DNA sequence: CGGTAAACGGACGACCCCCTCCATTTAGCC
DNA sequence: GGCTAAATGGAGGGGGTCGTCCGTTTACCG
C-alpha cells in the first residue's frame, strides 16, 4: 500500500457509499448484494463473480465498478450477519448468567455458520488492509474475552478453557457445516452440544492438550 | 456406464495393475504416486494434475494413461494411509479396554487428518462407482459399530453416543485441520481432547441434540 | 543386434474465470 | 425537451487447468 499524502479527512472510502449513487445505481447495488448473499449461501464463497452478476441481472462491469475487489463484495454482503453476531455477543454480555450467555452466543454463531456456506468464510477470512472489520473484530475479541472470564469466575466454564477455543469451535463447526450437506444444521447442533458439555466446568478431568493459540485474524478458508 | 456384454471374468480392471507393466512404466507409476502423496499432503487435493506430473518428472500423458481419472489417482495414493486406519481399528478391537481402543483410534485418525491435507478428502470423499473402497469401508463401519457397542457396554462411552458421531468428529476435525494452518496439529489434538471428554460416560447430563445420521458414504469435501 | 509394441512427453484445443475497456444507454437537472 | 455526466453491459485479452493426440523414444524378446 503506497503511503498516503499525509492528510485525507474521510479515509478515502473506496466504496462511494450507497447514498452518493444515482437511483438506478443504488438499486443495482442492492440487487448485487442480494444476489451475492444468495449465491454465497448456496454455493460457498467461491462462486464466480460472473455468476453473481448474472443472478443479479447486471453486467460484470457494473459489479466490478461497485465492488472492485472480491473482498469488498464479501465484506458488504455479510455486514448484516456480522452485525447480528456482534449483537448476539452484546446480549450475552448483558445476560446475568454468563454461562448461559456463552452458550447462547456459541450456539447462535454456529447455527449461522451451518445455515450459510459463505458466512464462515466471511467470518474467518482475514481481510488484509481492510479496516472495515478490524474495529468490529477487536471489539468482538474483547467482549469474548470478558464473557469467558466472567463465565469462569462464575464457576460454570472450566478454568483451562482458552479464548482460542472459541475459534477452535468455529473451525470445527465449519468443517461440519461444509461437509455434512443437508444434515449440516442437525450435525452442527449436535457438535456444539458435545462441545458445550465439555466446556462446562465439572468434576476434575484429566489434562487437556494445550490450546492451539488460534487467533481470529490468522485464519483463512484453507490455511 | 454402458452395460457390459454379459461376461468378463476379471472385472475389467481399469488399472492394468502394477505387475503387468513394463519396468520403466512401473517405476514411473511409483514416482507418480509418491509425487501425488507429497503434493496432496502439502497443498490439499486440489493441486493440478500437471503439478503432480511435474513433481514426478513425467509428462501429463503418462499420468493420465496410468490414472485415467482424478479419483483413481487419489484412491491409489491414499491406499496405504487407509490401510493404516484400518489397522488402527483392528488394534482397537483387540484392545481389552474398548474405551482405550476407541480413544486411540479416534486420536490416530484425527492426527492423520491434521497432518495431511489431502487425506481427509480421500477419506471422506465418496467414490461413485468405485468398488475399490466399498469393501474396506463396510468393514470399517462394522468394526466401528462393534467398538462403539463394546465401549458402551463397558460403561465408558455415553449411551446416547451414535456411530454417526464418529463422522461428526472427523468432519469437525477436518475443519480444524484445514483452517488452523500451522497450528493444525495442536488444534486438532485439543479438539479431540474436548470431544473425547464429552463422549465419555459420566454423571447424567442434559439431553443432547439428536444425531445427524451422517454416513461415511454420503459425505464429500463440500457437500 | 534388430524389430515391435509399449511407453513417453510436449503441444494443443476446449473450457472457465478474472478483470478492463469502450461504445451505448439512461437518470437527473435546467 | 435537451444536455451531460453517470451508469451500463458485453466483448475480449490474459492466465490457468483439463484431458487428448501424435510423433518420438525405449524396453524387451528373439
Automatic annotation (TrEMBL), chains A, B:
Location of the HTH tetR-type domain: 26-85
Region (Disordered) location: 1-22
Protein name per the record: TetR family transcriptional regulator
Pfam families from the UniProt entry: TetR_C_43, TetR_N
Origin: domain of life: Bacteria
Organismal lineage: Bacteria, Bacillati, Actinomycetota, Actinomycetes, Kitasatosporales
Gene3D superfamilies noted in UniProt: Tetracycline Repressor, domain 2 (1.10.357.10)
InterPro entries (UniProt xref): Homeodomain-like_sf, HTH-type_TetR-like_transc_reg, HTH_TetR, Tet_transcr_reg_TetR-rel_C_sf, TetR_SbtR-like_C
Organism: Streptomyces rubiginosohelvolus
Pro residues: compositionally biased ranges: 8-17
Presence of the UniProt keyword Transport in the record: no
Amino acid at each position: 500500500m503506497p503511503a498516503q499524502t499525509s492528510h485525507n479527512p474521510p479515509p478515502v472510502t473506496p466504496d462511494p457509499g450507497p447514498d452518493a449513487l444515482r437511483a438506478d445505481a443504488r438499486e443495482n447495488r442492492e440487487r448485487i448484494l442480494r444476489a451475492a448473499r444468495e449465491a454465497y449461501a448456496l454455493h460457498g464463497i467461491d462462486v464466480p463473480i460472473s455468476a453473481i452478476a448474472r443472478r443479479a441481472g447486471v453486467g460484470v462491469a457494473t459489479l466490478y465498478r461497485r465492488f472492485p475487489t472480491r473482498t469488498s463484495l464479501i465484506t458488504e454482503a455479510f455486514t448484516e450477519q456480522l452485525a447480528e453476531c456482534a449483537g448476539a455477543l452484546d446480549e450475552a454480555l448483558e445476560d446475568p448468567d454468563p454461562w448461559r450467555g456463552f452458550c447462547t452466543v456459541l450456539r447462535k454463531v454456529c447455527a449461522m455458520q451451518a445455515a450459510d456456506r459463505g458466512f464462515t468464510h466471511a467470518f474467518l477470512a482475514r481481510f488484509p488492509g481492510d479496516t472495515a472489520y478490524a474495529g468490529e473484530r477487536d471489539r468482538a475479541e474483547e467482549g469474548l474475552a470478558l464473557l469467558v472470564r466472567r463465565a469462569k469466575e462464575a464457576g460454570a466454564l472450566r478454568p483451562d478453557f482458552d479464548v482460542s477455543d472459541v475459534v477452535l469451535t468455529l473451525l470445527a463447526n465449519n468443517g461440519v457445516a461444509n461437509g455434512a450437506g443437508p444434515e449440516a444444521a442437525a450435525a452442527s447442533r449436535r457438535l456444539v452440544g458435545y462441545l458445550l458439555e465439555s466446556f462446562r466446568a465439572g468434576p476434575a478431568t484429566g489434562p487437556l492438550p494445550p490450546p492451539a493459540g488460534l487467533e481470529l485474524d490468522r485464519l483463512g478458508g484453507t490455511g
